[in-house]
Amino acid sequence: MSKLTELTLAAARDGLAKKAFSAVELATAFNQAIEAANPSLNAYVLTTPEKALDMAAASDARLKAGNAGKLEGIPLGIKDLFCTQGVRATACSNILGEFAPTYESTVTSQLWRDGAVMLGKLNMDEFAMGSSNETSRFGPVVNPWKRQDGANAALTPGGSSGGSAAAVAADLCLGATATDTGGSIRQPASFTGTVGIKPTYGRASRYGIVAFASSLDQAGPIAKNVLDSAILLESMCGHDPKDSTSLQVPVPDFAAAVSRGVKGLRIGVPKEYRVDGMPEAIEKLWSDGIAWLKDAGAEIVDVSLPHTKYALPCYYIVAPAEASSNLARYDGMRFGKRVAGNTLTETYEQSRAQGFGNEVKRRILIGTYVLSAGYYDAYYLRAQRVRSRIAEDFRQAWQKCDALLTPTAPSAAFGLGEKSADPIQMYLNDVFTVTANLAGLPGISVPAALDAQGLPLGLQVIGKALDEETVFAVAGVLEAQAGFTAKAKPWW
Amino acid sequence: MTTLTAPNDLDIRSARPDQLVAGATGDWEIIVGMEVHAQVSAQSKLFSGASAAYGGAPNAHVSLIDAGMPGMLPVLNRFCVEQAVRTGLGLGAKINLWSRFDRKNYFYPDLPQGYQISQFAHPIVGEGVLNVDCDSGETIPVRIERIHLEQDAGKSIHDLDPHATYVDLNRSGCALMEIVSKPDIRSSEEAANYFKTLRALVRYLGTCDGNMDEGSMRADVNVSVRKPGTPFGTRCEIKNVNSTRYVALAVDYEARRQIEILEDGGTITQETRLFDVKTGKTRSMRSKEDAHDYRYFPDPDLLPLQLDQAWVDAIKASLPELPDAKKQRFRAEYGLSAYDAAVLVADKDSADFFEAAAKGRDAKLVNSWMTVELFGWLNKHDKSLADSPVTAERLGELVDLISNGTINGKIAKEVFPRMIETGDAPLVIVEREGLKQETDTGLIEQTVDALIAANPDKVEEARLKPKALGWWVGQLMKATGGKASPAVINEVIKAKLGL
Predict the structure, then answer these.
(1) CATH number of the domain located at residue range(s) A3-260+442-457+465-482 in this protein
(2) Could you read off the pLDDT of B11-66 as tens digits, one per residue?
(3) Is A154 helix (H, G, I), strand (E, B) or coil?
(4) Is B214 helix (H, G, I), strand (E, B) or coil?
(5) What distance in Å separates the CA atoms of residue A189 and residue A157, rounded to the nearest whole number?
(6) How distant is the Cα of A351 from the closest Cα of chain B, in angstroms?
(7) Strand, helix or coil for residue A16
(8) Which of A28-42, A261-275, B213-227, B429-443 has the lowest mean pLDDT?
(9) What's the angle, vertex CA B161, arms to CA B159 and CA B163, rounded to 5?
(10) Which residue of B72, B77, B113 is the best one to mutate when testing the A interface, meaning the one whose CB has the most A CBs within 10 A?
(11) A376 to B105: CB separation less than 8 angstroms, yes or no
(12) C-alpha distances out from residue B342 to A8, A428, B197, B337, B350, Å
């Protein structure tokens, strides 16, 4: 039975359709795999094995009746940032206590609508603030991948969607929901040899997803391969009247775009992404990627995104500013953790002091500062102007090319604890990914090589707004050309 | 040589001499600007589908959005937007086709999100003007600075428990229009009339029910004083004043307080104050130094609000007749005096009542019955026109009975209380109680003959003073139980006495 967990989502879907196995068998296999692996990996913060079996049984009934949905019987892990009705949702923060929402996020409700099965809630950085999954109230996720140096160091799966990426990489689900505010889908995908796509801002509803930075947050899947990610994204997207920033556009057939090829496409290579001190393996990965696309018939063009160097500072003003306001509702009054004090102010102070972790507090402080009277113009307003310039850079680039190719992250997975003491080092993880969030563009990470230590590295494809299809087409070619088949060797 | 300060387009009105307040050091001028919060008359809240109805059990009208639950997002209620535009158009104001919602951040238990969604930098309505009829008979233009849409907060209840505060979120998220005037008001009376006129306008427009008891309209009143001809002084803001009378009392008290401080050589500190209705005084709530830094920024959950000019034009075309126009028409169409027209028009309900009753009738008679008898009774019983037991139709019928001679005015005054008691048609009451006017000259003639025979002295008196027939009329009324027609009586007496 353990074999079932190694299937891709598309293969499992075919197997279920052909009745090669049942949804209950599939769910059972995952329940068992999770039970065995989770104590070592800490990918799940809450498992829902009975719910999985109930949902799987219902899927089997629908499969039998011939009215199966697009994801019928497919077991998925759900990032803890998504509100799930009756199932604890904490954003991996103490401040949410044992909060169990009475409502379901639009994205997950669409997955259930299509027949998917919930295995549990996945670990993440607290409120999605982090790049290593180390800020979680439940402790870090351990990357299923190890360096080949024999030291057996525990590595980070990246963040904030570390649990999603690790669970997919370790075959603890067929796919996972994730969210990406500055790279939280793509960087963990890169660190774990998985595929992760952040769609165009407004493609997927934010309703029912605990907000970090509203103008940047987007949901997307992490999956075993490009096709699986396309299948999942299609279910997750669509206009939602409950989210005012949701786009009123039809959802294309993403899966069909994966095999479209790149013939005739112009692929831009932005020179500003060639940063100092970039590891050789990443340089090589990038040039290999360029060569693969060229071989497949794409035209490679050099482009310039001159404001790239301001993207990270801009992001670390805009995101904390919005977060400082979004997190004001966690006041110990209506739900989650309350630490009662003698006065209202004391209750606020103690609840928030004990409820939030250090990284979250740091960002609330930064965000409060940049919005304060006297600083607003110098920081927030200026960052908004920079943000417009960054978006304009991309618009200029689209005159010359159809998609951009860059590395996903400036390094492979690093060791737990290696960067957690230095926020700036940690923030640099997002250097290649934040631009897509600031400009609202779709971006995917595709595993394309192993470094000298045997750790996976990802390539990123950034597309035009609402042109996920081209992104998938380029990603499909990279995947095929890279022939990346490596998997983490189970040690858990 | 003194330099004049640059012309200030905020400071364009001077008080009349009789509006100045006398102090120990001379006269003072009161300067008032008002921010009126008017709750939009809407079924649901500004950003959620929860009921916006007044009342209900505590926390019965609360959606997940209003409660600030994790992952909940605001969705703008277009109906509320339309009401703000209507209000703006009613004030002849500029409608901003592009506006934006900002977050105003502060912590309080009755503010579940930790921020209020408001329009700080880019309001939906820009400058306009409200013409205010004052007690002096003068009409003053008060310029409107802006109107913006914002969420109301919930209610904190501090007096249910000595150690705890209870929170009711029913009002949390209800749509408010904040209507901001320029500092064009120069007395407590003008301030009260501004508030009253604004209330009448929103009620005409149907955009706010103006119900002050339910908190649908409340004013933040900015008051400062100065010596005439000098620049504006430092102002204090009196929060949440919820009646026309309190507005006047608060302005008067606050102006005197400030004058006293200034005349004692002190200075005014800019601060927020509360008006205590029990003492009629204002007291300090927080000073400028304690003011929150609200950290306004554009709400990233909402897109900028973009309106279509055609949509705005359609709203404009659908506006009802507004008080100014109605006043002119009442004077022209019904021959009412400016004062009578203003009184009727001040409230949409009374204007509508009047028109319904006056159509095709003696409008002045209708006006007099309505404003004297009906309003008198309503005021005495602390009721509004909406609660009137006498409908416009019935009042009209009563006037008909007077006009066609079925009853006289005196009898009508007996019929009216019966109408209030029973709600019956006046004709039914008149017939049931036998109150029809006696026009049978035979009975009257007999009575006059008898009076002449029995009272030769009165006959002599009448011949000497033919205009003083009071005694005769009184006797005849007594004899006929008040039902005799005054016209017939006069005619018969004059004929019989040969006057």
Answers:
(1) 3.90.1300.10
(2) 989 999 999 999 999 999 999 999 999 999 999 999 999 999 998 999 999 999 99
(3) coil
(4) coil
(5) 8
(6) 13
(7) helix
(8) B429-443
(9) 110
(10) B72
(11) no
(12) 79, 70, 11, 8, 11
Burial class (CB in 10 A: 0-12, 13-18, 19+), B436: middle
CB within 8 Å: A210 and B71? yes
B121 in reach of chain A (CB within 8 A): no
Q: Give the β-pairing of B155-157 and B166-168.
A: antiparallel
**Chain B CA closest to residue A370:** B295
**Interface contact flag, B69 A335, Cβ < 8 Å:** yes
What is the β-pairing status of strands A299-303 and B281-287?
A: unpaired
Cβ separation A335–B300 shorter than 8 A: no
Distance (Å, whole) CA A280 – CA A264: 30
CB atoms within 10 A of CB B209: 17
Q: Residue B33 belongs to what H/E stretch?
A: strand B26-39
Is A232 within 8 Å of chain B by CB?
A: no
Do A210 and B70 contact (CB within 8 A), yes or no?
Answer: yes
The angle formed by the CA atoms of residues B418, B422 and B426, to the nearest 5 degrees, is 55
Does position A1 have pLDDT exceeding 50, yes or no?
Answer: no
List CB contacts (< 8 A) between B295 and chain A.
324-325, 368, 371-373, 376
* Record: contact A101-B109, CB cut-off 8 A: no
Dump pLDDT digits (tens) for A181-208.
Answer: 999 999 999 999 999 999 999 999 999 9
Q: According to the model, what pLDDT value does residue A112 have?
A: 98
| Both structure tokens of A10 | 């598309």
- B300 shares contact with chain A (CB less than 8 Å): yes
Nearest Cα of chain B lies from the Cα of A433 at a distance, in angstroms, of: 20
Cβ neighbours for A396, distance < 8 A, ≥ 6 positions apart: none
A208/B74 touch (CB, cutoff 8 Å), yes or no: no
CA B45 to chain A, closest CA, distance in angstroms equals 14
* Burial state string for B97-117 with b = 16 or more CB within 10 A and e = fewer than 16: eebbbbbbbebbbbbbbbbbb
Which pLDDT value is given to residue B194? 97
Q: What domains are defined for chain B?
A: 17-314 (no CATH), 321-432 (no CATH), 441-497 (1.10.10)
Contact B300 A215 (CB under 8 A): yes
* Cβ atoms within 10 Å of B284's Cβ, excluding its own: 12
Which of B69, B76, B113, B302 would best serve as a mutation to test chain A binding (most A beta carbons within 10 A)?
Answer: B69
**Distance of alpha carbon A230 from alpha carbon A461, whole angstroms:** 14
Least Cα separation, residue A152 to chain B (angstroms): 39
* Residues from chain A contacting residue B112 (CB–CB below 8 Å): 329, 333-334
Could you tell me if A465 and A474 are in contact, meaning their C-beta atoms sit under 8 angstroms apart?
no
Query: In the numeric block, which tokens belong to residue B16?
Result: 């009349």
Contact between chains at A376 and B72 (C-beta distance less than 8 A): no
B70 class by beta-carbon count within 10 Å (0-12 exposed, 13-18 middle, 19+ buried): buried
A246 catalytically annotated? no
Of B107, B112, B297, the CB nearest to A348: B107
pTM reported for the whole predicted model: 0.89
Check if the beta carbon of residue B439 is closer than 8 Å to that of residue B488: yes
* Residue-level pLDDT at B1: 41
A304 catalytic residue (yes or no): no
SS3 annotation, A70-107: CCCCCEEEEECCECECCECCCCCCHHHCCCCCCCCCHH
The continuous run of DSSP H or E covering A13 comes out as helix A9-17
Report how far residue B266's alpha carbon sits from residue A77's, in angstroms, rounded to the nearest whole number: 69
* Residue found by looking up tokens 């009409």 in the block: B139
> How far is it, in rounded angstroms, from Cα A171 to Cα A487?
10
Q: Are B275 and B249 in contact (CB under 8 A)?
A: yes
The ipTM value here is 0.96
Averaged confidence pLDDT in chain B: 92
Q: Choose among A209, A213, A321: nearest Cβ to B71.
A: A209
Q: Would residue A215 show up in a list of annotated catalytic residues for this protein?
A: no
